[in-house]
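Worked Example 4.2. Read the sequence first, then its structure tokens.
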Amino acid sequence: MPTTGPATPRWRRASLWRQLLMPLVGLWVASALVATGAAYWFAGRTTNQSFDRLLSDDAQALAAQLRWHDGRARFVASRETADSLVFDSLLRSHYSVRTEDGRTLVGELTLPLPTPDNTQAPRSQQFFNHQADGGPMLRAVALRVRPSAGDEPVWVLVAESETKRRQVTNEIAAAIFLPAGLAGFVIIPLLYYGIRRGLAPTRRISALVVQQGEHDLSPLNVAEVPEELRELVQHTNALLARLKASVDEQRRFVADAAHQLQTPMAGIRLLVGDMRRMQRADPSQPMDAEVLAHLDDVAARGARMVRQLLAYARAEDETLIEDQVFDATQVARQAAQRWQAAADAAGKTLQQPSDAAPAAAMVRGSPTLLGEVVANLIDNALRYGGSHVAVDVLARGARLHIHVSDDGPALDAATRSHMLLPFWRGGHGQPEGSGLGLSIALRVVERMGGGLAVRAGPGGSGTCVDIDLPRATHLHT
């Protein structure tokens, strides 16, 4: 008994809703992270620009308190006024106003002065970062003021720690990220619920199939099936219809086979019973030759029917049919040669395929089963047809035709149509037939992609069975 491995965990099993939900959740998470990162970057950039403008405004406010007398600069406002001009409620700003030669007018900020650019405007400003030993990173602006060439140049420096910039940036990012994170607690359940609700029809269809049971092959109702699943359900219904037809045919076949086998089995039991009664009446009496002959005949008919049933079942099973390219003319000629002696014994003529038959009559399928089909048709023609039986092979474009005809009495259209039904036997009065020969032939030919038809013979007399097969040489050109 084969061993099975450990059961696959439920979370690893293939699930349609999971395959839909996971990409959507992943897309949302990725989008949220990208949007948050972009928002954080833009928030930091905007924050820096805003605070740089504030630093510039503070420097301009301090520069407005400068006056020059005889070219010498002085700061006219008090220290308290200067402090109020650069006041910041978040973090204290640092400032210094000093001349270019190092004289401090107000403030305690000690930063290296940037290199002056004489090409710049008189009130030009420069932004830069500076970090003293062990101190925080400072963002500073340096404003150089010189009203005229004879005036003393003055530098106005205002600096603040970048800590408050990061603090404001983090607050802005949190204001963006937190609502997005909280929205995930709503969006993800909504996605889950929406996908589960959207897949509800598939669960209903699955439940409907389970409720039908293994013996119910009726079609599924497509009235409420979504458009995306309608084609699948329609194909399933078509498959169920074909399966139902096959099951019904098999049931009819089994019932007909059992009914047909009753006759030879009953005959065998009856003859064996007669033989046993005669032996009990007189054990020394030899077996009745006539009874033995009848018993042999009945057993032979039963064996023939069993062979026909096996052949019919074999023709139904596609996996047992050979698949090769072979010469149909050669197969038909060999089948006719096997029945030549029987035709001579019956005083009938059997015309084999002539030398004018197609030299390249190649078809794909089973040469063994096709040979049995042609042999069976010849047997039927010799048994029930006229005195002359002919086997012909003809090529017509991409199709190949094998004709088995006789010159017996003409059959009406109704009889010809019934001849292909399983267990149907004509009114010829001969009990040895099983009524399966033409049904077997039809199944074999259909498996080879062809068709079989029963028509009137040449000139409207006799019967002609036409086997129509696709030529393999045409298929491969």
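Now turn to a second chain, presented in exactly the same format:
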Amino acid sequence: MPVSGKADRWLRRAGKALGGVAALVIVGAASMWLAVRLTPMQSVSAAGQSVKVGATQPGWSLSGPGELDLFGETIATRPHFDGPIRPRLKLAHISLGSQVDDAARGGGELVPVLSRRLASGWLHYCLWESLIAAGCAAVIAVAVAGIRRASRRATLAAVAAAVASVCAVNAVGIYLLASGTPQVLRRVRTLDDLVGRAPAKNVPAAKGPAMPDVRVVVLGDSTAAGIGNRPVDHPTATDRTCGRSADSYAADLAAVNDWNVLNLACQGATVTDGILGVQTRGDDMIAPQLAVAQRATSASALVVSVGANDLDWAALTALCAQAPVCDDKASTAYFTKQIAAFSQDYLDLLQQLAALPHHPHVLVNDYYDPFGEDTGCLSKDGVTPDKAKVLRSRLSDLNTVLEKGAAAFHFVSVRPHFDGHGLCSEQPFVQDSADRAPLHPTAAGELAIALADQQALTGTVGTGPAGGTGSAASGTGASPDATP
């Protein structure tokens, strides 16, 4: 046979072999991509805490952080993991009651048992991912063989080759390159270890006499304080500093139900500066709201309104009104950073609420939509329909964090609706830019929030001595807002 003929045959065989290898690589990559998307996260539990273990989407780097899904917000883990596929962890549920270890419930500790189970969950996930990837490879190979009308023998050979190549790639990509992942996960003892921060200290009860006649306690920010509306009767210095109103939803709940409702909310309060920590306003130092709330030893329910100040919502809204657009890269990145940080502070708050010794029913209030469908009157303030849409989307993101966090701890989330009563309606539930507290609820808006809370509280609040209508601002007698 001529030399040129042998060379041509060799080239054809080589090209066919390379084509087969390329096809196997494509099938393997597609199978792994599908498998990561299709493989369910593995649930592991211990000490009443449930965490789901899965994998991030494969990347090009061979080392990097994993992901923590905390109430819908993705946070990069501080520990780095080797391999192109790294773990993704999701806080699923926190079980309360006698089944929960006190240390785990109070400090958020993922006890060593759960640390080991995180590693075990990762290995189980890898096994399932490998099986599903092999199945995807087999399906793709059969589909390609069918299109090419290959023989049964050729089809079986293609399936075997595809499955073998995918298993080999998984072995290299996961078991070899990610072999250190279980060891890293075994060192994780708290959720704070994953994000590289110190756990919050438990807030002790404030000094002072117990307030056994209080039925409901309200914690939160200016929305809960009712800022911009009528001040409370006979206000204390703290009432004035915090902007507490006689028209707040706490006051409405007290008046309608003949409950003693203790409103500790304060304008400007955040989770760390106001609820779990001391809040400074001017020359005034206000004790942590949760510390004072613990003096209400017989309270049946606790209502929380928090999040807007943690995100610097007022500043974001003002910047949006002045800027050409609201969803530019800088403001979007800032919002993403703020809401990720809030989700971690919110976890600290939820853990401490769950650890309260008298176990009140906990309600977490979502935020209302202040704009509504008609945004025509907002043009004078620089807010266009597109800008209102962006702000509404960011409020929705905040509410998602609030709702998922409440659900994880088996608390109740409440969504007040201002439908038909936005800023530009004939009867707005929201204060205008010319009012004392723009975008905050009017007296009617506070009543709408109270009605939503009332429905959620029905049947949960005790019927013991109510102390008359109570005081929805600061209780009776001496002010409970003790100076720290």
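Notes for the reader: Residues 216-457 form a domain with the Rossmann fold fold (CATH 3.40.50.1110). The two ends are 100 Å apart (CA to CA).
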